[in-house]
Amino acid sequence: MASASAQRVGIVFVSHSEKIATGLVELARQMAPTTQLIAAGGTDSGGIGTSFDKISNAITAADAGGGVVILCDLGSAILTAETARDFLDEAAQLEVRIVDAPLVEGGVAAAVAAETGGGLNAVAAAARTALQPLSPNPSPAGGHDTTTRTPRDDTPPHTDSADSGAISRTVILTNREGLHARPAAQFVNLASTFPVPITVNGTDARSLLSIMSLGLAKGSTVRLASTDPTAGPAITALADLLKSGFGEA
Fold first, then answer.
1. In the β-sheet with 158-159, what is the strand arrangement from edge to edge?
2. pLDDT (0 to 100) of residue 2
3. Does pLDDT of 56 surpass 70?
4. What is the largest CA-CA distance in the chain?
5. Which superkingdom does the taxonomy of this entry point to (predicted)?
6. Looking at 16, 144, 158, 180, which residue is catalytic?
7. pLDDT at 204 over 60
C-alpha cells in the first residue's frame, strides 16, 4: 500500500517562460517541501512558448497517486495543457485538473493545500481562492486591531461570554517579519492538522491567502478563536507557534 505522502496531489506550473515556471517551483517549495512541484515552462528549445512534451512529462512526474493540479499563465498554455490531458486515458484524465487561477498566488495556495494532505478537490479549491477579493485591511472591520501591545496581552484559552461555547486566545507576534509567506504556511499547515474550525482575527486559519492578507506584522495582536469548545489544545498549539517566532532572529 502506498504511504500517505505518496498519495499527495502534485502541482504543475505551466508558463511560456522556463524561468517563470522554475522560479514558481522554487517559491512554492519554501512552503511545500515534500509536495511534487514540477515546472513545465518554455518550448523544447528553451524559447518562449509552451511544449506539449514538457507538460505531458510534468503531469507524469507530478502524479504521486493523488492526482495533479495544473496552473497556467496565458490562454495558449491552457490549450496546450488541455491537449496533453486529452492524450491521457479516460481514467487518468479525471485525476488531472486544470485550474483557472492566478499562477503565483493560486499556485502557492494549491501547494500548501497539497502539503497539508488536501485531496484533489481541496487543492483545486485552494488555488481558486486567489480569485476571491481579499480586504486589504480586514482587521478593523472585524473589530480586531493589530496595534503593538506588550506580551501581557497573551491570554490563556478562555470561553467567550458573548458567544456560548466559543473559545479564544490573544497573542502578540514576535518574529521580525510577522506572518509573511513562510511562517504563514507553517501556521496554516499546523492549523490544517486539527479537525476544529479556527479563525485568526476573523479569517479562516486554514487559508494561506486569507492569513497573508491580514498583513500581520511584528507586534500585531492576533486573536485565535473557535466556535468549538474542544478547540483549546488546537488554539494553544497555534498560539505557541506564533509566540515561538518561527525560528526567526
1. 158-159, 167-172, 221-226, 199-200, 203-204
2. 39
3. yes
4. 65
5. Bacteria
6. 16
7. yes
Residue numbers of the domain that contains 46: 5-131
> In this structure, what CATH number is given to the domain that contains residue 203?
3.30.1340.10
Our count of domains for the chain comes to: 2
158 is catalytic: no
Q: Measured in Å, how far apart are the chain's first and last C-alpha atoms?
A: 42
Give 148-196 pLDDT, tens digit per residue: 333 344 555 555 545 556 899 999 998 888 888 788 888 888 898 899 9
Pairing outcome for strands 158-159 and 221-226:
unpaired
How many angstroms separate the Cα of 211 from the Cα of each of 25, 67, 204, 214, 245? 21, 26, 7, 6, 16
Q: Are both 118 and 12 inside the same structural domain?
A: yes
